[in-house]
Amino acid sequence: MKNFFIILAMKILNIILKICHKNGGNFLGKIAFDCNPSIFKYFKVNCPVIAVSATNGKTMTNNCIGYTLKQAGYKVVSNTEGNNMETGILSTILKNCTLTGKIKADFLVFEVDESYIPVVFKDFRLDTLVILNFFRDQLDRNGEVESLILRINEFLKTYNGNLVLNNDDPNVARLGQANPSNQNVYYFSVDKYSFATENIKEAGEGKFCPFCKTRLEYEYYQYSHVGKFKCPNCNFGDNEIYKLATNVDLKNRSFDIENITYKIRGNSIYLVYNYTAVASVCSLYNISTDVIQKAFSTFALNNGRLEEIEINGIPTIINLAKNPTGSNVSLRILNEDDEEKELLFVLNDNIADGFDVSWIWDINFDNLNNVSRIITSGTRAYDIAIRIKTSGFPAEKIEPYLNLEEAVKALYKTNVKKYVIANYTSLQPTRRELKKFATQNNETSTMQNGNNNFEIKNDISKTDNFQQNNDTNSVYSKCVKILYLYPDMLELYGDYGNIQVLKYRIESRGYTAIIDRYSIGDDAPNFNDYDIVFAGGGADNEQSILAEDLVKYKENIKEAVQNGVFFLLICGAYQLFGKYYKGVERNIIPGLEVFDYYTEANPDRKKRCIGNIVINASLNGLETKIIGFENHGGQTFDISNSFGKVLFGNGNKFGDTEEGYFQDNVIATYLHGPLLSKNPELADYIIKYCLDRKYNENITLEPLNDKFENLCREQLLNRFLSVN
After folding, report:
1. Out of 64, 282, 479, 571, which one is annotated catalytic?
2. Does the annotation count 20 as an active-site position?
3. Which domain holds residue 331?
4. What is the dihedral of CA 576, 582, 585, 587, to 10 degrees?
5. Residues facing 533 on adjacent strands
6. Which of 517, 594, 514 is nearest to 553 (CA)?
7. Is 632 a catalytic residue?
8. Are residues 524 and 611 in the same domain?
């Protein structure tokens, strides 16, 4: 009877919400779940239940499956608005069930957040599970990708229903082996398309075989780590393909499956993957190809998923991007368009977004094709402006606005084509603001031709001193030589941005930045040949793999430290330079023993030092506040000389007053962000140290235009320190 009254109360509440013109989202489900966490067991389902999960694309795929089934004449119940956690799915069920828990439908189709697959379907029947991809996303909430995959893998060990997997993503394809007795595993794939590359162009996961730890070999990459791969040792990836998309033609928006052509509305390779997944599911339920063809050609991409609209006659394309891969796909679409265009990038750091925005440094902003101006907005408008400027895009063509309304108005001061990228909580406010602007300004006469007919609100000087002068015969022939260690393995939290910042600030002064990269299998480096050695953070799995390689250079590294080579070590690298690292499973990873500290991970994976952090650093006369983001389960002990005093956040361990380790030529710290992007004084401290040491003189660094950086620091320091 308890469940009966819970459902009755929720239905009454739903009526009240409708009267008040409120959707409710996951509100009904939250109340019901709080009343009875086992309520999923109560519902009576007599139809197939389909679930779609992924880092990117699950909303579109879920809605397209539902739409196609409806085109076939079936009644479908689905969470089309994207409320995909247990409370959102429960809300959808509550709205569509009887008081006795019976759900009247031919199909239930649910988008499910990756973390909640084991939660929802522990007590609720599941017939077909579709998994599209796994990418790094909201690491402060979801944790490392590997941890997420392992949780889903554990659920699948006892699952015997249909499992539809993307064979081109090694993180997904591996799940087909979770339950060897499951005979209902179906792999889909997409053939090589015209913009596929031989080398990965962006951050990606899945570099090593999950079964034998051998580095995977790729024939080509479609985007990020998605492509045709195979383990050369155990043949992982060599699966029988259920549905293969061929003849991909993004210009004409079509592809083939089994010699049948499908026309679609979008022009992105990742959409082709989504549609191929839909075709696979529909085939399992005997939906005719005629119905699928019609559905694909008429299915509307909306709600900010590659949504195409016109505002005052100006084509505008809006896309959600809440992680590096989503952003890179959006930029790839932008770059494949040869028309002149402008970009609005809106970035928030609310709870639902994740507080960590370091992922923006894994976005590839290099070589933007015919982009004449970029507007940034959101709570982290200055962060994304710094990121874009550091990529080499002219600062005078970047306009940050904290106020979204002002940003939209500034965007439409010109009449060229617009692209809009917005992350999770900024998407719907941005769509509303665009529509409001279109309603209020329906005359195109207010638009001006050209790219220079607008006022640059933020007064960024056109002499930003950004120049890349590699003329070794000039007065600026001095160089800084940087060794970047394991860039393919220690790059989890946007730490590569530190290299970008150093390069930018070195070359902006006319010096030369030489950047060498070293990873497993490369020729051995001599650490003494470099001015700066940099290594970032990584997951435990990568850390354990590379530790065996790094120890080979133990004596050479110790010698370089003693000789004054500057070492910048972030998170995982910080730990590896100590005595040892004890992992979650209590396994010991020997350190290089360059320094006397040691690190032990908290056995509880959920207990981590996560959040924004501010420290007060004193670096040989430089007194400055350092801003960053920490995300570490490891607790570091026996620090003889810290990097700084904690003003906000944790530090070396839970609730510590000290953060990191420092000596004249070593900064080892847990601060991501990346560290140097919002701390230009610290970047210049490192650069000056290296130049003074190398050339035996007291070099004065030419001041740079750090307006974006200073605005960013002021905003964030006020936010974080006002909390205390």
Report:
1. 571
2. no
3. 307-446
4. 80
5. 483, 567
6. 594
7. no
8. yes
Residue 117 lies in a domain: no
pLDDT at 442: 64
Instruction: Using alpha carbons, select from 524, 528, 531 the residue that is nearest to residue 549.
Output: 524
Q: Does residue 404 sit in the same domain as residue 330?
A: yes
Q: Can you give the pLDDT at residue 449?
A: 32
Same domain (yes/no): 562, 608: yes
**The domain spanning residue 364 has which CATH number?**
3.90.190.20
Tell me what pLDDT residue 467 has: 36
What is the reported pLDDT for 240? 96
* Peptide linkage before 674 cis (omega within 30 of 0): yes
Burial 556-569 (b: 16+ CB within 10 A, else e): ebeebbeeebbbbb
- Contacts of 39 by beta carbon, 8 Å cutoff, 6+ apart: 3, 6, 32, 33, 90
Q: How many residues does the chain have?
A: 724
State the SS3 of 22-40.
CCCCCHHHHHHHHHCCCHH
Q: What is the CA radius of gyration of the chain?
A: 26
Backbone angles phi, psi at 438, to 5 degrees: -65, -40
pLDDT < 70: residue spans in the chain: 23-24, 138-143, 201-204, 442-476, 605, 723-724
| Backbone torsion region of residue 206, taken as left when φ is above 0, otherwise alpha when ψ lies between -120 and 50, otherwise beta | left
Q: What is the CATH number of the domain that holds 605?
A: 3.40.50.880
Task: Give rounded-to-5 percent helix, strand, coil for the chain.
Answer: 35, 25, 40
Alpha carbon separation from 487 to 518, 536, 574, 671 (Å, rounded): 7, 8, 15, 17
**Torsion sign, CA atoms 588, 589, 591, 595:** negative
Provide the pLDDT for residue 202. Answer: 63
Predicted local distance difference test score (pLDDT) of residue 29: 86
Query: Around Cβ 474, how many Cβ atoms within 10 Å?
Result: 11
User: Is 550 in the same domain as 432?
Assistant: no
Looking at residue 83, its pLDDT comes to 82
- HSE, side-chain direction, 13 A CA sphere, residue 183: 0
Domains in the chain, number: 2
The tokens describing 432, both together, are: 């509303």
Last residue within a domain, chosen from 396, 429, 446: 446
User: Does residue 627 contact residue 679 with C-beta atoms inside 8 Å?
Assistant: yes
Structural element, H or E, at residue 612: strand 609-619
Best CA proximity match to 370, nearest among 468, 451, 250? 451
Last residue of one domain, picked from the residues 403, 426, 446: 446
The residue from 225, 632, 672, 690 that is catalytic is 672
**Residue labelled with tokens 């670096």:** 619
End-to-end CA distance of the chain: 48
Assign 657 to helix, strand or coil.
Answer: coil
Q: What is the dihedral of CA 702, 707, 710, 711, to 10 degrees?
A: 180
Distances in whole angstroms, Cα of residue 712 to Cα of each of 353, 360, 380, 381, 385: 19, 15, 8, 8, 9
